[in-house]
Protein 1
Amino acid sequence: MTELSKILRRQIEATGPITLADYMSACLLHPKHGYYTTQDALGVDGDFTTAPEISQMFGELIGLCVAQSWMDQGAPDRFALVELGPGRGTLIADILRSTVQVTGFHAAVDLHLVEASARMRSLQAAALPAYHPTWHDTVETLPEDIPIFVMANEFFDALPIRQFQRDPKGWREIMVGLSETGVLQRGLSDAAPIEALNSRLDDTPPGALVETCAHGTAVVDALARRIATQGGMALFIDYGGWHSDGDTFQAVRAHRPVDPFAEPGQADLTAHVDFEALARAALIAGCAASQLTNQGVFLERLGITPRAQSLAKGLTGEPLAAHVAAHRRLTHPDEMGSLFKVLGLYPVNESPPPGLDP
Ligand code: SAH
C-alpha cells in the first residue's frame, strides 16, 4: 500500500467519502507523495510522452504562431509569454529558440511559468539557462498590466474533475470511499438536483455520466479577463472534445493504462478536456474563442510538412526514420492528429491566432 493510500484511507474513515476531484488533487500534487511532486513523469523513460518531447517541430511551429499573433497585435514592446504546466520546459525552450530571429520579440518577452511542482520547476530552470522566468503557483498572480500570450499543452487534462451520473431524481456524484475490507473504491452519493448540470438534462439519458472541471474554467476565466482587457492570446492543446460525454478518467503508468485507485500517487491521472466548457468560460469573461481545431490540421496550416522536409534533408538511416515517424505521430488522424485539439482565445476585436482561422 502506498503512503498516500494510507493517508487517504484515514481521511475517508474520519470524514467520509471524498470527491474524485479531491482524490485527483491528492494523487497528483500531494506535497510529499503526489505524482508530479515525486515522479519523473515525462518522456520515453517516464510514464507518457507529450508532443514537445516527440519533436522540436511542435514548439517551433507554436513559436511562429505566437510571434505572428504578437505582430498582428502591433508588436507590443513588453508582453508576458506564459506557459501553464511546462513539464520539462521543452516547449517553451523550442518557442524561444525558434523566435530568436523575430525582430523585437525577445527584447519584449517577460517569461512566466505556472507550475505547481517544485521538482518540475527545477527541470524547467535547467532547460532555460539563459532566461529568468517568474514562477507562479496559480494563474491569478500573472501580470495585469501587459498583454499575455499563453500556451498550455497537456495541462488541462491534469486538472481535477468531478463525475456525475444521471438519475431520475437529479444526479449522483461518483465519490471515492472504502470497501468493507478498507480498499479505496468508487461509490455513488445520494441523488440531488444540480443546477449547474440543468443544461445536460435534455441530452443525457438516466445512467449517463458527465464530468465537470471547475479548476479548468477558473483558469480560463483568469486568463480570458486579462486577454480581453490587456491583449494577447492563449493556445490550449489537449485531448478531449466538445462536450463531456461519459467516463474519461484514466491512469497511466509506464505508458500503460492501470487502475486509478490501485496505487495513488504512482500513476498519472487525467481526464479528457471538455473544450466547450472552456470556450464558454472565455466568452463569459469577454474574450473570443476560436473554432476547436484538430492538432493535425493546426500543425499542417502552420507548415509542419515543409518544415519536416527541410529537417529531413540533413538526416539518413535511423534518425531519418525517427523524424518521419515523429511527423506522422503529431499529425496523423490515427495517432495524435485528431484526438488532440487546439482551442485559441483572443480579444474580440482581433483575429484568431494563425492555424485556427477556418
Ligand atoms: N506541458 C508539458 C507537461 C505536461 S504534464 C508537456 O507538454 O510536455 C502536466 C504539467 O502540469 C506538469 O508540469 C505538472 O507538474 C503541471 N501541473 C499539473 N497540475 C497543475 C496545477 N494544478 N497547477 C500548476 N501546474 C500543474
Protein 2
Amino acid sequence: MYDPKSPKAGEFISHEEVLQTLAYAEENKNNIPLIDEILEKARTKKGLSHREAAVLLDCDIPEKNEEIFRLAKQIKRELYGNRIVMFAPLYLSNYCINGCVYCPYHLKNKNITRKKMTREEVQREVVALQDMGHKRLAIEAGEDPKNNPIEYILDCIDAIYQVKHKNGAIRRVNVNIAATTVEDYRRLKDAGIGTYILFQETYHKDSYEKLHPTGPKHDYAWHTEAMDRAMEGGIDDVGLGVLFGLELYRYEFAALLMHGEHLEAAYGVGPHTISVPRIRPADDVDPGTFDNGIDDDIFAKLVACIRLSVPYTGMIVSTRESKECREKVLDLGISQISGASKTSVGGYCEPEKEEENSEQFDTSDKRTLDEIVHWLMGMGHIPSFCTACYREGRTGDRFMSLAKSGQIQNCCHPNALITLKEYLEDYASPETKKRGEEMIRSQLVNIPRLKTREKVEAYLDEIVEGERDFRF
Ligand code: SF4
Ligand code: SF4
C-alpha cells in the first residue's frame, strides 16, 4: 500500500503507485486543460506532486513543452539567480565488495588497480584541489568494511579539513558512501559533513536486485531507507539521485519525486539536492548493454520537470556530461556543477597510468577549473565557491524555510561574489580574472539592500588586502 509517511521502502516507493502514475500520465499527456492547470500550479513555485509532474514529462505537445522549458528557466532565475556552485569529487578508495554491474569497482573486476589513499595521500590530493581553487568536495568510496570502514572515512574527512595550504581551504565536505547505520550517520554528522549523498541507481526493485546481484547493496530496502537512517542520525541535508539509463526514465522520475515527498512527509525536509547522472563508459562497463539510455532532449526535459516539481532542491550535473549538454541544462535548473574532476583514486596529483584503469567512469568534460569558470561567466553565470550555509548552521528545515521564503538569495548572491573574488585573487588566469572583475562590478547592483552591498564592497577590498573567508 502506498504511504508517503511509511518508513518502509516498499510503501513510500510503492511499485503499484508508480505504475498507476505512469498510466495516469499516459492517459493525460494530451489533456491541455489539465496540463495548463499543472503549469499554473508550477508557476506558484510550490512544487508539483509526482503524478502532476509525470503528466508534464509525458506531454509531447510542442507548445506545452516550450512552456515547460520557459517556466523552468524562469523559476531557476527567480530562485537561484545566475549563480552556479562549484565542487569536485574526491575518490578515496575503489575497494568494493558489491557487485553493481554498471560500475567498474565491482568486486569481480580484476582489470582495475585497487587503491586506497593514506591520510598523507588524501592531503596531497587536497593541496592539488586547493591549488585549483576548490572549496567544496564530495568524497566517494566503495563499500568495503575491511578496507574502507567508517573510521577510515572519518579520518579522511578530518585530514581534508586540516589542510590549510596558502589561502586555500576545503570548507565543506559532502559525503557519497554506501548506505550505513544510524550510528555511522551520527558519526559523519559529528565530523562536520555537509550533505550526505546516495544515489538510488534505480527505484525499480526487480531491476535493482538484478543490477546488484551480490554484496550488501543487493538489499533494496536497506539502500532505499538509507536517507531515513541518515535523518535519524541527525543529517538533515541529503542528496538523492538515480543513474539514468538503467531503467525506464519515466519510472525513475516518478519514484525519485516520491522519495522526495516521503522525506518531506516523514521529516518535514525535502531533499537538499538531486543529481541527474547518466550512465557512462568505464572499464568492464558498456553503456550499450543497458537499453534504457536517454538522449540529450529527454535529459533536458527531465531537468526542467524536476525544476518545476521541487523548486527548492538544488540540482547537480557532473563532468559525465559534455560541455554542450551542460550548457543546455544550466539554464533549465542546474544549480551545482563539478569542474576539472578526476574519477580515479589519487588522480589529482598523478595522472592515471593507462594500465591502472582506476577511474569510476569516463568524464566527458575534461576542461580545467579555470576554463570552466571562464566559460560560465561568458554565459552570464556567476561561478560560486560558497559553502556558507552549513557553516552558519543553515541546514535542514532552517535552510528550507529560508529557501522557500526567497530570503536565501540575500546570502547566495553576495556570497557568490565574495567567493568568486577569492578565486580571482588566488587562482585565476589573467583572462579569467579580467572577465571576473567585470562580472563582479556588473553584479554588485543586483544586491538590493544598500547596507549589504556596502558590506560586500568592503569585503572585496579586504580580500585584495589578503583577508579571506567572509560570508553572509
Ligand atoms: Fe561499489 Fe559503488 Fe561501484 Fe557499486 S557503484 S561497485 S557500491 S563503488
Ligand atoms: Fe548554497 Fe547557502 Fe551558499 Fe546559497 S548561501 S550558495 S544556499 S551554501
